[in-house]
Specification:
Blueprint: H1 3-19, E1 29-35, E2 43-49, E3 54-60, E4 63-71, E5 77-85, E6 88-93, H2 101-112, H3 118-121
Antiparallel strand pairs: 1-2, 2-3, 3-4, 4-5, 5-6
């Protein structure tokens, strides 16, 4: 399975989870364009459905970028973009919650303190 197909699959899974009970009613695509990977691994795709979901993406063997737009069940327009590369999947958007400050502090503490030798620390 190509990287582009995996990204599209992840986006569709994410959207079906966001839409909950509305997932069975996802409408048909009214626009679809896809360029399969060439010899260098470059590809792109875009599609739109009758219920307003729009996504575009492009990438190569080193990663991908894209944008997804839809309207939530509450009627709120949702747009997020993403980068998927050696650093993992990194979505950005107004609806994505910020990392809580206490989690940032905990990660900083872990980063700045050496790991404990469990065997030595348990010796009496």
């Amino acid at each position: 399975m190509s990287f582009g197909k995996i990204v599209v699959l992840l986006v569709l899974v994410h959207l079906s989870q966001c839409l909950g009970d509305a997932a069975p009613f996802l409408a048909r695509a009214i626009y679809y364009r896809s360029t399969p990977p060439d010899a260098f691994g470059h590809y792109n795709f875009e599609f739109q459905t009758t219920n307003g979901i729009t996504t575009k993406g492009a990438g190569n063997e080193n990663g991908a970028v894209g944008v997804v737009q839809f309207v939530s069940l509450e009627g709120i327009p949702v747009t997020f973009s993403y980068v998927a590369d050696a650093n993992g999947y990194q979505p950005t958007g107004d609806q994505i919650p910020a990392i809580p400050l206490h989690v940032v502090r905990q990660l900083e503490y872990i980063r700045t303190h050496p790991p404990v030798d469990e065997r030595r620390s348990r010796r009496w």
